[in-house]
């Protein structure tokens, strides 16, 4: 019911934004921008890059909202824009990966030094924080080894809890392809993190 | 059901992405096949391991900074206009027309009415005996709102707004026309006194989600600190139950340029100081806020919280 109300609300805001009402567009932005920023933040691993993706995505949406035809939900549309920008970012990142500040762990595996930096939300239990950071760094390292598309499907399914049918719509592919991609991604991750279980 | 099929679908099963009938068969198979049962257990353990690592939520600071940057960019951004769209996508325009007989009829009727209308004098708006304008105002016809008054002791509100000439609408706060004008005034009016009156009236019924959204908008974007302060007071009672309200108060606390607004936001956030994000902001403020008062108040609130282990 709440989802239906949100959709009606969005429809009104989209129509107003299409008539050039910037306030309506900004309200629409606020319905989705937290989720968009969270996705961009986790995929890029950098607040600066996440802000760039956020900015580019909503500017693109603003400039093209006139061509939005309600053929899909605004949610799918904005996620499509964001995921395309993130995929571009991941592809570029893969190209310049050799320059990343990596170090070797005791088992010879590489990990990202930046992932080791303590975040400001550390609680009062340093041991648990350290373990959490180590786990996070290992998972981040394993995620880096996926192809951009595998990474995106896994991200949308595992961290954002979207149904694979929706993931397929966002990535403009079939549910079946999204299923196959998720299978490949989990297989690779299990292989990369086998020693942690 | 073959073991190979089960192995290929175990990950999807763990994510709840297997159809009901296939799920039933998979469960039946794993209850009989020890190898597949072990594979399922391993996949579930792996899933549990991954689930210990959550994607972090963006901090209120990052969200606020991103919104401000976007707002600045939108001021200079150009939308693809109607002419642009028609010029570059005429096929789509024609397609829309073809599948919209109602729209086509409306355009035909409008054209006919326009033609007839030019031969007669256009009559002015009819008014009732009490002088109340009966025509419903539309945003496009409003040039500005010149005053808002409420009769003492009643819920009657009187709003004067300009079209070509100033008009007046009267009604209660439940009246849709009055609500429409109040929402317009809160967001668009050039006169901060009118915005203040409008926001003041919106705070009388912030359970209405449109009213509450307008208050959040005023708190975030109004240039007048008095209006932002008034919006804060209207939002205060919802800080516990509405996360959007809580976020907007956190943004005001972190980013507002007015010390009074920041102090009031801090006071209103006190009932939810144990919330993770509020706690995070308080810790940041206690460590390095430029205002000594905010620093010390943030420390006081943090000191009242139990330690997290």
Helix content of chain A: 55-70%
Cα radius of gyration of chain B in angstroms = 29 Å
* Approximate strand percentage of chain A: under 5%
CATH class of the domain at 1-99 in chain A: Mainly Alpha
Oligomeric nature of the chains: heterodimer
Give the uncertain stretches of chain A in residue-range form.
98-124
> Which H/E pattern describes the elements of chain B?
HHHHHHHEEEHHHHHHHH
* CATH architectural name of the domain at 203-303 in chain B: Alpha Horseshoe
| Fourth CATH level, the homologous superfamily of the domain at 1-99 in chain A | RNA polymerase sigma factor, region 2, helix turn helix motif
The major pleated sheet of chain B works out as: 3 strands, antiparallel
What labels describe this entry?
heterodimer; A: 197 residues; mainly alpha; Rna Polymerase Sigma Factor, Chain: A; two-stranded antiparallel sheet; 2 strands; globular; B: 309 residues; Leucine-rich Repeat Variant; flat
Write the layout of secondary structure elements.
The complex is a heterodimer of chains A (about 200) and B (about 300).
Chain A: H1 2-18, H2 22-44, H3 47-64, H4 74-95, E1 102-104, E2 110-112, H5 126-144, H6 148-159, H7 164-170, H8 175-192
Antiparallel strand pairs in A: 1-2
Helix pairs in contact in A: 1-2, 2-3, 2-4, 3-4, 6-8, 7-8
Chain B: H1 3-14, H2 20-32, H3 34-51, H4 60-76, H5 82-88, H6 90-98, H7 101-117, E1 144-150, E2 156-162, E3 166-172, H8 176-188, H9 192-202, H10 209-221, H11 225-235, H12 243-255, H13 259-269, H14 276-288, H15 292-303
Antiparallel strand pairs in B: 1-2, 2-3
Helix pairs in contact in B: 1-2, 1-3, 2-3, 8-9, 8-10, 9-11, 10-11, 10-12, 11-13, 12-13, 14-15
